[in-house]
Design brief:
Two copies of one chain form a homodimer. Chain A is mainly alpha-helical. The first copy, chain A, has helices at about 10-35, 40-45, 50-55, 60-70, 85-100, 105-115, 120-140, 145-165, 170-185. Chain A is about 70% helix and about 0% strand. The first copy, chain A, is elongated, with a radius of gyration of 20 Å.
Chain lengths: ~200, ~200
Amino acid sequence: MTPGHGTQAGEDARIVRTRADVARTAFDVLVSEGADALTHARVAERAGYSKTTLYKHWPSRFDLAAVALEALGDVAHHERTGDIRTDLVGELKAFRQAVLDRRLDQVLSAMAQWATDEMMREVRNAVNTDGQRPVRAVLEEVFEGAELEAAISMLSGVVACPSLMFGTVPDDDVIEAAVDIVLRGAGRAGAEHRSPRG
Amino acid sequence: MTPGHGTQAGEDARIVRTRADVARTAFDVLVSEGADALTHARVAERAGYSKTTLYKHWPSRFDLAAVALEALGDVAHHERTGDIRTDLVGELKAFRQAVLDRRLDQVLSAMAQWATDEMMREVRNAVNTDGQRPVRAVLEEVFEGAELEAAISMLSGVVACPSLMFGTVPDDDVIEAAVDIVLRGAGRAGAEHRSPRG
């Protein structure tokens, strides 16, 4: 990543552009062709760079996978309103949209497959911790301990399970039913109540 | 699969044994080395058969994947007691055990990766429909419509999400918390009540 010759600014701009091109292309290969296809040869071919350039900056398949995941950085989240039910439903719909637009389901399953490698395991855990953060933040207002962990996995599962297991996404009424079951299950009478249960 | 020469019985027995060997080996390759490694060369090497034999009976990688999934046939389920809470907790613990013993998480993510292929999509859907059947049967006593779909995905997610996303399985208290939240969320006062809500 250190600039070689040429002006510092010109070289830096080129590196940034190359990195963005390769990240986007590697991500596209990953979600459209599967983890098997994520090779230096395939990304070089689709991005229009030489394999030499790719190997120079991203020597291993691990590096290719990591740079592909950088393209996830701009996945949209729901903007918090302060109403717990609205925020949970909104965040699950944003998750569903990312499955449809960015094939987050393919990313999830690819990361699970790569997890036989220690480094990839760390990358996967960081990406998934990051992805669950908004739902966790809302649920922490209502749950704690084992119930909090259960609620986070359950609401992630409403979108993740159908997409990973059947290639489908839940309708609005299924997302809303899930949030209502979880909030009722916390002993809350309805969505209006904001204070944690006693 | 038609017997060639030799006695019918001896030939049939040999075919059955070969199929079982290959299914077990293909399954082991899949869960220990990942979907990338599931090739005729690798399975032949580990099973001690020639590549020719493998190509003869299972011409494509699709066939190898399908035969690997036959080894899932004997995954243990929980035996129904009639008590809804006990049966849901028991089934989720059986799911968790299969993740630990049979690496069901790796199978799930491999199937999701293969799903770019139409035939593999059908196999995956059949395997997952089968896997969810016991939980669905119990939840149908309590839920219907969108709530039923939400509850099935949520309880699958309690085991599937941590294993796929973080390589961990939930503790007993998380499984029990999930079942309790879902049953309370259905408007049920407690585990003793067996009748569907009105």
